[in-house]
Amino acid sequence: MGPIYVAFDGDNDKWAYGFMKGWKTNNRVDFDFEDAHDLDTMTSRAQNEAYVKAALKQRMTKSDALVVIVGDATKNLYKFVRWEIELALELGLPIIVANLNNKTKMDEDLCPAILRKECAIHIPFKKEAIKHALETFPAAFRRVNAQEKEAGWRYYDNPDWYRGMGITPTP
Asked: Could you give all domains of the chain from N- to C-terminal order, each with its CATH number?
């Protein structure tokens, strides 16, 4: 798999992105991904909307999937995170929604409105769940036809798997 782009609330949820990077660098943890953020760096002009959108497009066209880390305030972000989601949808990237509250399905209260009806997989923010989604969802997404994608969001219906991660599946 190629680079993965990770979108998150930089003010509140940067710690979660840090966890993902930590899992990747820890030799004792079976988790790896090529971080699209490492493909280039944004300069101090990152407040300029045109510049940011151009840089995002450059990163995302090289990405194989988008992981959206959803925390308490993610749905309220109408700049960077929304731009990242809009671009991923435009490019047809598979989207993995990782819920920081560990819900195993879409969290209607926290999921950004732009993703609520999209064909994205919703998982808890757990290393095992993210790893599995990165390994399986992009290929599955690419095999699904447009009509099936219109059916909307997805989740893994495997209560025993979630219990093995210490999570009670979302009803």
From this structure: 3-164 (3.40.50.11200)
